[in-house]
Amino acid sequence: MTTAPGTVLVVEDEPSIADVLTIALRYHRFEVMTAGTVREALALAERTRPDAALLDVMLPDGDGRALGRELRSRQPELALVFLTARDSPAEIVGALGFGDDYITKPFNIDEVVARVTAVLRRTRTSDVLPQRPPLRYGDLELDETTYSVRRAGRSVELTPTEYALLRFLVRNGGRVVPKDQLLRHVWQYEHTPPESTVVETYISYLRRKLDALGPPLITTRRGVGYGLA
Question: Where does the record place a coiled coil (predicted)?
Answer without folding.
Answer: none
